[in-house]
Amino acid sequence: MSTGLPKRVAVVTGGSAGIGQACAQRLAQDGIDVVIADLRPAEQTLRLIAEAGVRARAVACDVTQAEQVEQLAAEVEADFGRCDILVNNAGRYSMLPFEQITLETWRSYMALNLDAVFLLCKAFLPGMKRRGWGRIINMASNSALLGAPRMAHYIASKGGVIGLTRALAAEFGESGITVNALAPGPTLTETVVESFYASVGSRDEAAFKSFLNLLSQNQAIKRTGTPGDVVGALAFVASDAAAFMTGQTLVVDGGWAHT
């Protein structure tokens, strides 16, 4: 059964690569026009979307800056007329011992992983409320539900995302807007690869493969997740089929068993 939403418009932050790129591509395949908000070039994503035959545009935007987010919302309104689906995917990830997390690092993670979600919701919720329909999908992490060492800065920011998701769902349910979060587990993206190499101080591919294999042993499905594994859940919560589901965090982690 198709969960496509023809003639609707989605804004995907951090859509130039990784999970964001996969989300943008899947929404386009479902017939949804897509705006990618990212500071990085998004030409590859635009090429992938073009194959689906929908309208697409990339907008350079630092989603931690209120003025730039407001400008993004204005450009989407002017060019596409609306934003029906907001995918708050932009974020950052690394592993650091707690003693090495500086206040500057802490605040930088809060700015991109949590404050940006607040700013984007502030910018696009009013239009959704006027139209009486909207889907907000926030990217969280299974680590925020499980806890993990060397990730206090990241987990705290993603825990905030889950809390904000629940609060907005409660406040805007009567307006025809659902707000849900997706919580992937370890997912093979460029960010994860580079973070691992930075943490060990070398580009040891054998060590990285061993690391991924070790992580996957905690899962019921014993393989490393990919961005494509996340988008089925995204398509569902973005659809009319999920109209009665809000305030939820869907864990997409291969059945992780915390040990």
For the structure shown, list the relevant keywords:
259 residues, alpha/beta, 7-stranded parallel beta sheet, 9 helices, 7 strands
Give a written overview of the molecule:
Helix 2 (43-50) links the parallel strand 2 (33-37) and strand 3. Helix 1 packs across helix 9 (231-237) and helix 3 packs parallel to helix 4 (103-131). Helices cover 46% and strands 14% of the residues. The protein is globular, with a radius of gyration of 18 Å. The protein starts with 8 loop residues before the first strand and ends in a 7-residue tail after the last strand. With 259 residues, it is α/β, with parallel strands linked by helices. Strands 3-2-1-4-5-6-7 form a seven-stranded parallel sheet, sandwiched between helices.
Amino-to-carboxy terminus distance: 37 Å
**Which descriptor suits the 3D outline?**
globular
| SSE-based structural type | alpha/beta
Low-confidence stretches: 1-6
The total strand number stands at 7
Mean of residue pLDDT?
A: 93
Written as H for each helix and E for each strand, in order along the chain, the element string is: EHEHEHEHEHHEHHHE
Order the strands across the largest sheet as they lie in space: 3-2-1-4-5-6-7
Q: So how many helices?
A: 9
Helix content: 40-55%
Kindly report the oligomeric state of this protein: single chain
Largest sheet, in brief, is: 7 strands, parallel
Specify Rg, calculated over alpha carbons.
18 Å
Strand content: 5-15%
